[in-house]
C-alpha cells in the first residue's frame, strides 16, 4: 500500500520529467511544485531541477535523486567528436560549442521555458526599434585576470563582424551598426534596422571574449579565456579536453564541480559500459538501438527534450553537375521516405523532419510540399524532365563518426535506386568531410545545423547567398531579400508568415532536403545531478554536481 507521501514523490518525479522534456514552462514548474510537500520535492529529481533553473548562482544545496547537490568532483563526459576550435567566434562544429560554452559567458541566455534570462547582463531595455541598452554585472573577471566591461562587449561583436575573423556567425549580427560603451557597466547596441531575432542570437552565439586574451600572442583556438565557470587546462589532441573550476567566477556558489574531462568517443556500446563501470559519468549520446532500455535503466539518469535538438538534412551541391539540375533535386525529394529514415537510421527516435524546427516550435507551420511522399511516379517523371531517364551515378560523402548520418545515407541509397539514381557512398573522416563540404567539392551528403532556435538562425547561415555555412552553394537574390525582410520584422505573426514563404521556395528549389529532426538524449550515472537539455544545446555544467 502506498502512502500519500509516496504518491506525491511520484508526482514530483513526473513533474521534473515533463519540464525537462519541454512539456511545461518554468512558471508552470514552480507553480505545480508549490502544491507538493517539501519532503516529496527534496527526495525527488525535482529538487535538482528547481535548483538548476531557479537558483541562478544562489549556492543553495538541494536534495535530489536521493543525494545533495554539493561541491567537488571531476565529471568525465563523453562527446561524439573532437572540437574544431575553442574560439567561439570561429568554431563551426557542435562539439566545440559543447566545450567552450563552459569557458565563456554570454550577455543573456534562454532557458528550457523559452524565456530569456541575464548572465553577464543584469537588465536589457529596448529604447526604440533600433536601440538596445544592456546593464552589465560589475563583478565578472576573465580567466586572465582582466575585468569584464562594456569594452569587451564592443570588441566581441566588432571582431565577429570583421571579415578578417571569417566568423561563421557574422550573418547573425549584420544588423548591428555600432556598440556604444556608455560606461564600464553599460553597453548600447545601435542597429541598422529593426531585427527580430536579435535577443535570440545573443543568447545563441554571443559568447563574450577579451581583446587582450585574443590578441595576446597565444592562439585563441587552443587557449580560450572567458568569464565562464570553468577555465581551460589542456587539449590532448584526439583524446580529451580538460577544464577546471574557475575560483573567480562571478556567480556565487557555482560551479559545483572541481573540473571536467571531455573525452572524444564514438557512439557505441563502449560508452554504456564505461558509464556502468564508472569510467564515465556523463554522455551526450547513446546508441539509439538501446534507447528504450537505457532510459528506464535504474543505474542511470536519462534526459531528453522535444523542443531542443538538431535538424538533419541532405545537402546537394547546386553549383555543379549533376545537382545544378533543379528537376533532379525535386526527383530526389519525391523519392525520399523520411519515416523510413527515422525508423531505420534513428531507431524511431526524434521526428521525421520537414522543417528547420521541430513540430513543437512556435515557428513550425507544417506546410511541407512533400508531406504525402514518397511518390515514385512523380520522381521518375522528374527524372525524365531532368534528361536522366536512363539513370545517373552520384557520390555521397559519409561520416562513420556520426552513425545516424551514415545510416541515413545507406537508407537514401536504397530509396534513390528505385528511380534510377546509383548513389555510391564514400566514407571519410570528419575533417576531410568538412573540407569538401565547406569548399563545395562534393555531390551530396548529410549535414546538420546546431542551435537552430529562430528560423533566421538557419536561413541566414545555411541558405543565404555567400553565407559562411552555405555549403550547398545556393544563390537566389529574391530568396535573400525575403530572408532580410523576415529578419527585420519584429511582429512575430508576420515573421511566421514570411518563413512559410521562405520554406515554399526551399521546397521548390530543393538545395537541401530536411530528412530528420534529431532530439538529444543525455545519459549519466545516478550520482550526476542537474543536467538539462537547453534550446541553445549548451551543456550548462555549472549547475551540474555529483552527489
Can you walk me through this structure?
With 547 residues, the chain is of the alpha+beta class. Among the domains are: 105-215, Alpha-Beta Complex (Dipeptide-binding Protein, domain 1); 308-519, Dipeptide-binding Protein, Domain 3 (Dipeptide-binding Protein, domain 3). Helix content is 32%, strand content 22%. The chain has helices at residues 4-20, 26-33, 38-42, 46-54, 94-100, 150-161, 198-205, 211-215, 269-277, 291-294, 326-335, 338-345, 376-385, 403-417, 430-439, 455-463, 477-488, 492-509; strands spanning 63-64, 67-68, 74-79, 108-110, 116-118, 121-128, 131-136, 176-183, 186-191, 230-236, 240-245, 259-264, 282-283, 300-316, 392-398, 421-427, 444-448, 512-525, 528-529, 545-546. The protein has a ten-stranded mixed sheet, sandwiched between helices. A four-stranded antiparallel sheet has the order 6-7-9-8, covered by helices on one side. A two-stranded antiparallel sheet has the order 1-2. Strand 1 and strand 2 form a beta hairpin. Helix 1 packs antiparallel against helix 2 (26-33), helix 12 (338-345) packs across helix 14 (403-417) and helix 17 packs antiparallel against helix 18. The protein is globular. The chain starts with a helix and ends with a strand. The model is unreliable at 1-10, 17-28, 37-45 and 47-67 (pLDDT under 50).
List the helices and strands and how they pair.
Blueprint: H1 4-20, H2 26-33, H3 38-42, H4 46-54, E1 63-64, E2 67-68, E3 74-79, H5 94-100, E4 108-110, E5 116-118, E6 121-128, E7 131-136, H6 150-161, E8 176-183, E9 186-191, H7 198-205, H8 211-215, E10 230-236, E11 240-245, E12 259-264, H9 269-277, E13 282-283, H10 291-294, E14 300-316, H11 326-335, H12 338-345, H13 376-385, E15 392-398, H14 403-417, E16 421-427, H15 430-439, E17 444-448, H16 455-463, H17 477-488, H18 492-509, E18 512-525, E19 528-529, E20 545-546
Parallel strand pairs: 3-12, 3-13, 15-16, 15-17
Antiparallel strand pairs: 1-2, 4-5, 6-7, 7-9, 8-9, 10-11, 11-12, 13-18, 14-17, 14-18, 19-20
Helix pairs in contact: 1-2, 11-13, 12-14, 16-17, 17-18
